[in-house]
Amino acid sequence: MTNARSPSVYQKYAWTLLFVFWALHLVLSVRDFFPSLQDFCLACLPGAQTAIQSSTGMAWSQLATTNPRFANFLASALVDDGISGVGLAVFGMVVSLTSFRKGEKWAWYVSWSMPIGILAAQINVYLLTGSLLVIILGVVFVLVSLLALFLPYRQFFPKKNARSLETMLEFRMSALSFNKRSFRIAVAAG
């Protein structure tokens, strides 16, 4: 008799944490379609420089008026980044809503892109802005996304049942003895 346990609440709904993070990623990626919003740093303390300010030495509005060609180029790069971010966010939302929720192993591995991506992005923004709040938020987001990955761990990688291991060994032993018998019969007939 197998010992089938139903998943606990935290295992059953851990996918929602990843889904919410991917939805947040979607919203932040859509922001890249509007370059003028780059003057606002959502994870910076008041008065801290944004990534655009620390890279160019001026706010987006100043950059657009003093160097419109460079601003247009940068706006194009931001839109490209937004397109990539939206695509990744939609993919992550679909994976977490479907395959991760069902407990498919490949989805667990793919979902590691969330904490790795958060860590890489937050370190990049910290290096540009120097805002310690970015690191604190990054650590919180990484920990919550790791929690979403490890809470349902046994759903993706169940423990090997001792009974099923015994059954598998018995099957292998019987197959081995069958092969020896078949070999003897074939030799005797040959």
Please, could you describe this protein's structure?
There is one protein chain. Helix content is 75%, strand content 0%. The chain has 2 domains: 151 residues, no CATH class; 31 residues. It is built from 10 helices and no strands. It starts with 8 loop residues before the first helix and ends with a helix. By secondary structure, the protein is an all-alpha fold.
Content-based structural category: mainly alpha
Question: What coarse outline follows from CA principal-axis ratios?
Answer: elongated
Low-confidence stretches: none
Major beta sheet summary: none
Order of helices and strands: HHHHHHHHHH
Distance between the termini: 44 Å
Mean pLDDT: 83
How many DSSP E strands? Answer: 0
Q: How many separate domains?
A: 2
Radius of gyration: 27 Å
Amount of beta strand: under 5%
How much helix is in the residues? Answer: over 70%
Summarize the entry for a quick read:
It contains ten helices and no strands.
Features of this protein?
190 residues; mainly alpha; 2 domains; elongated
Write the layout of secondary structure elements.
Elements: H1 9-13, H2 15-30, H3 51-56, H4 60-66, H5 68-102, H6 105-110, H7 113-129, H8 132-150, H9 153-156, H10 162-189
Helix pairs in contact: 2-5, 2-8, 4-5, 7-8
